[in-house]
């Protein structure tokens, strides 16, 4: 069996970061939901939806970073496979959001490298804190992501069935990821940690909407 050195992990992490940050380098395993629907939006509606999808795309960049950071430090011997499945589904989400942004003639957030770095560090720290906290961190993240997806679903224009189908499937997956993490023994995080996560995600959602 090959033993990986620290430098191997570093190169692997860098490769993963590029895949998450460079548009077009993540391919979805499942086709984007809502492909058979039509959405004809006014210019203003399209701009608003692009803002929302840019936030969701940034959220998915964070999810990639979180799972990668966690994989670096967490052991998770019993649940590795489930967590890998969840990480795989996050790649679908990333690719779907990216595709929708393109359809709307828009672009991913310029701040994504910053969000990736922050989330990677938080994921790695959660992994160091032990598997129960690491899983608790996933559960808390998914809860917060699901809450903002629910809010975006209420903000979408009625006639945007395409974006709606994507966000609904993402929300379903995120809640499943949360269930998986909790069932595997995820522990509730201390309130200050939850608060810090909310603060970062609020800053992200407020800025990625615009640029
Ligand atoms: Fe996701
Ligand atoms: Fe998720």
TrEMBL record:
Binding positions (Fe cation 1): 60, 90, 93, 174
Alphabetized UniProt keyword annotations: Cell membrane, Iron, Membrane, Metal-binding, Monooxygenase, Oxidoreductase, Ubiquinone, Ubiquinone biosynthesis
Top-level division of the source organism's lineage: Bacteria
Catalyses which reaction(s): a 5-methoxy-2-methyl-3-(all-trans-polyprenyl)benzene-1,4-diol + AH2 + O2 = a 3-demethylubiquinol + A + H2O
GO MF term list: 3-demethoxyubiquinol 3-hydroxylase activity; metal ion binding
Membrane topology note: Peripheral membrane protein
Pathway info: Cofactor biosynthesis; ubiquinone biosynthesis
Primary site of residence: membrane
EC number(s) recorded for this UniProt protein: 1.14.99.60
Listed GO biological process terms: ubiquinone biosynthetic process
Required cofactor(s): Fe cation
Note on cofactor: Binds 2 iron ions per subunit.
Sequence positions that bind Fe cation 2: 90, 142, 174, 177
Keyword Metal-binding tagged: yes
GO cellular component, one term: plasma membrane
HAMAP family: COQ7
Function: Catalyzes the hydroxylation of 2-nonaprenyl-3-methyl-6-methoxy-1,4-benzoquinol during ubiquinone biosynthesis.
Name of the featured protein: 3-demethoxyubiquinol 3-hydroxylase
Organism of origin: Alkanindiges hydrocarboniclasticus
């Amino acid at each position: 069996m090959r033993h990986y050195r620290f430098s191997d992990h570093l190169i692997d992490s860098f490769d993963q970061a590029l895949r998450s940050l460079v548009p077009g380098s993540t391919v979805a395993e499942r086709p984007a939901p809502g492909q058979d629907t039509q959405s004809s939006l006014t210019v203003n509606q399209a701009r608003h939806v692009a803002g929302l999808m840019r936030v969701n795309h940034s959220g998915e960049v964070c999810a990639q970073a979180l799972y990668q950071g966690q994989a670096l430090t967490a052991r998770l011997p019993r649940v590795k496979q489930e967590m890998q499945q969840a990480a795989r589904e996050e790649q679908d989400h990333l690719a779907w959001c990216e595709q929708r942004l393109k359809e709307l003639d828009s672009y991913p957030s310029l701040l994504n490298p910053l969000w990736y770095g922050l989330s990677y560090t938080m994921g790695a720290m959660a992994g160091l804190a032990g598997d129960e906290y690491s899983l608790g961190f996933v559960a808390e993240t998914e809860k917060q992501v699901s809450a903002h997806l629910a809010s975006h679903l209420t903000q979408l224009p009625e006639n945007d069935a395409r974006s709606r189908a994507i966000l609904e499937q993402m929300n379903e997956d995120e809640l499943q990821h949360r269930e998986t993490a909790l069932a595997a023994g995820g522990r509730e995080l201390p309130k200050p940690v939850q608060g810090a996560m909310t603060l970062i995600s609020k800053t992200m959602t407020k800025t990625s909407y615009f640029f």
